[in-house]
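Weekly modeling sync, notes
Attendees: AB, CL, MP (scribe)

Item 1: holo prediction request
CL wants a bound-state model with alpha-D-galactopyranose before deciding which constructs to order. AB pointed out that an apo prediction alone won't tell us much about the pocket. Agreed to run with the ligand included and paste results into these notes for async review.

Input as submitted:
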Amino acid sequence: MPVTDELMACFKEKFGSEGDIRVYFAPGRVNLIGEHTDYNGGHVFPCALSMGNYGVARKRNDKTVRWYNMTYPDNGIITADITGLSPEDNGLWYDYQLGVLWAFMQKGYEIPCGYDMVMISDMPAGAGLSASASIEELAAVIARDLFSIDVTMSECAVIGQYSENNFNGMKCGIMDQFASAMGKKNNAIFLDTDTLDYEYVPLNLKAEKIVITNSNVKHQLAGSAYNERRRQCEEALKDLQAVTDIKSLGDLTDDEFDSLAGNIKDPVSRKRAKHAVYENTRTIKAVSALRSGDIEAFGKLMNESHISLRDDYETSCSEIDVLAEEAWKINGVIGSRITGGGFGGCTVSIVKNDAIEEFKERISSVYREKTGLEAAFYIADAADGARRLL
Ligand code: GLA
């Protein structure tokens, strides 16, 4: 049975079949390159996935929201009152949705009533593929449609980020929500996070596929380490602003950074800033390589990105390093790197079609041997962003 039918059947069973019941979807994302640049005024290059969170919803005539999540049936039906919401930081799936409703209201939009909703996910959570942004954009697209709120999808991305920053306490950048809200089939999004200017870039891969490998190491504690990286970049920026007129690390070229780096007092913050600046340059170069059909150059930049995240930004972990470094040894692998916030999660690799089976077999067996863990693989399908389906 298609997932939307399953959801609808479950909704009718839990909440009754009368009235205007609508179906929505919001995707996860994979970032091809441009990691930890989005809170440093740099560029990112993610695409939305065909995996994500589905939701079926119907307006209520009071201020209550009721959810049932088929992915977490043990949670039962969760009920919340949307009047007088205040920030939480326990990061459960419904907190991300409450956060979005709160953010709409903070920004002056009216949420006139609550709704009943059943949802289901077909993507792994805690794997660096932005399951949380997918839930936020699902909540945003539902509110926008159910309550006829006059916002664009890129504003929905900003609202999602605002809610995660201020309601859930995770100081994330805009990349994940933007990719989930604005994804386009067969395209990646080249986004300047300073201005929110973006361009869709077709992923015309004929002889290769984008393969996501899940380490199955959950990025626990990632929130605090992430916020710490962000703080270190801010500290580095402050030291640089004492000697030069810049708004963000994304304003610097590699050479400019090299000549100014000595002004960053703390050596750890210096390394973090170096990653942010160089990664931004790599992202710009990678997109122009892709546009000119030079996938090999794109792959090399992905590998450099991984090394920088491993050594300078220190957001990789030993399990993820096994996945990337083993991938580099395989002939048909064009490039491979950690993707997302880090400290576990997934790698993203570009693999020649005829090497995919060997890739899966070899990575699985070496990963099992070295870590005792099982890897999982998904072929990434660049897909459309959050939307109403029915
Ligand atoms: C997480 C954040 C994003 C971004 C990435 C790292 O996914 O939510 O905003 O900073 O990490 O690139």
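Recorded for review: The CA atoms of residues 275 and 337 lie 14 Å apart.
Action items: CL to compare against the apo run; MP to circulate these notes.
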